[in-house]
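Re: weekly structure request thread

Next one in the queue (212 aa):
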Amino acid sequence: MTLAEWRALIEAFLEGRLSAEAFERRFNEAWRAAQAGGERIHQAVEQLAMALEEFARAQDARTEHDADEAPLRNAARIALRELREEGEAARDGRARTFDRARAREDMRRFQVYVGRMAGLGCLFALGWLVLMVLQINYAIEQVAAELKLGVWLSAIVGFFVAFVPVLGNIVAFFGAKDVGHWPWQLAALVFFVLPLAALFYGRTRWRRWRVR
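Done, posted below.
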């Protein structure tokens, strides 16, 4: 019998739907069937079986009065409580198993997510590096064309100008448009739109990470 079936049998006795004699008969039938089937007998059921043996001996020894059912009912209440606790523990165990399985699935998803983010991060870093190289190059070209400082001095000044926010973008834009002969739309895209998009994307990812 299952835990639920043992509990139902004991509850029927405690609620008065079965007399002590009927309960004893049904319990013994279930006990013998469980033993014959090689089922695991719960400890609470074994203790109740001993209480039933005591009750049966008291019945055999009775004279004028019926055997006292109080010890049997007390043993039945204890057995029922233990069977309920065992059932709750089994449900908790299944819940913990489910939680572990869910944790493993969450970890797998996290690993996939990290892998994707790492790939996107590499592409993002590569794109940012290309933009910086272009900005440095055309900032130097524009400084050399406008200030006539010579190759080395123009390279030094242009290099530092390229890293100045906004100013570096503007100088590189004109260098690409005037010296490199880029269409102004392409120069604006590379030196204004793409850097702003990259900054916005990075800030958005950072805020999402902070929330998590």
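The chain has two domains: 3-92, 121-210. Residues 3-92 form a domain with the Four Helix Bundle (Hemerythrin (Met), subunit A) fold (CATH 1.20.120).
Next request, please.
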